[in-house]
Amino acid sequence: MARPNTKPASQQPKAPDFLAWHVIDKGERSFWNKVGAAWRHKDDKGYTLQLETVPINGRIVLRQPLEEPDRADGQNENGRG
User: Fold this and answer.
1) What is the tens place of the pLDDT at every residue in 22-45?
2) Residue 36 and residue 22 in contact, taking contact as beta carbons nearer than 8 Å
């Protein structure tokens, strides 16, 4: 039996806890392509993984998103863009 959707329709989506990356190793280089995201369950006992595409080779790596800079002018703290 499916669980009913109890999330209010007006609730903003939560930022993901992890981003999912498809990684392919070619010689000494690795190529990373973002393929989805993962969100922690409220009870901290699991994650929901949402993939936008399903790779047929390589591996999927979950990494925490990088912190976004607070500056709106597109420059980082040392004044470089």
Assistant:
1) 999 999 999 999 999 999 999 999
2) no
